[in-house]
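USER:
Try writing one entry.

ASSISTANT:
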Amino acid sequence: MSRFNAQAQKGYYKTPTHLLPVISRYVSCSDPENARVLDPCAGEGEAIEHLGLGLGLSTSRIYANELDEPRALACEKRGLVSLCGDAVHELDAPLGGFQLVFLNPPYDEEADGSGRTERKFLSTIRFLQQNGILVYIVPLFVLQTRNVFERLTRSFHNIGMLRFPDPDYAVYGQCVLIACHGRGDMEQEKERLAALLEHPPVLGEHSAEPWIVPAPRMRIEPFPFFSQHLTARQIEAMLAGPVARSECLFGLVRRAERPARSLMPLRSGHQAVMLASGLMDGAFTDPDSGNLLIIAGKTEIIETKSVKLDDSDVLVTTVRKTPQALVKALDVTASLEAGELVLYDMR
């Protein structure tokens, strides 16, 4: 698949359905009644559902996060505990709260030149408890990159790796890495992974003792699982609520005492470009108050006219059009507390 097509589908490469039972054979669970599993890049939820049910978990212990809203809705329809948003920046869950993380991240380079997207998503192992199991599906060459190789051998022990069988392997060169969270003998893990990368065993053809998903180290009830991202459905539901309806009906909108602030200072030129492209639309946390803001931006054309006599005493009208950035923000937290819409304007 070309990089353009990969970006068009947000780097989404579904784990082949026929390989899910094979992958499941390499893990087992010591406490299925209390364990929780997470897929930070869940797609439509098929992989984490199959893996979780295979471990003996109920769907109430299977957690899915997906950036793409239609795919996140598919996870919800499966009965999984589901969120829509960016798992790296927007997902809020207990650190070390999951006993297994299944991670098949987007395959791409970061737009800012900071490296591979697959490496960035390794930050989601913060949700994996010590001695919990990581199942990480990426192309072989990604595991060979220095940053990924160092991160894995520094943060995991009992590392195993198997490549997809043919003909699946020929498509993207994918491998399944399975490991226990927590530092072991780093030099030994480096030697082990290097040998596996040199001569990768084949998934399903290589037998191994299953990795054991441990029991939770602590019981967390209720278990918080939130995203700072608001989906279109959530925003529509909020705007269709009684508070928003009454404000729209009567035109009673309270202006805030202070303007909204961006998370970082922006020059007007930067702001105009971001607003015109829609990059500032979305949900953000106000750095001062901690309130949740829904921000929408646009550029308006401000027209000014001037009339003066030219050298021939002829009236000349000059029309000047200047783009101006405008941000409108709905303070969700303050609106719920005040019982009325709290809107901010920033020009």
The first strand starts at residue 27 and ends at 29.
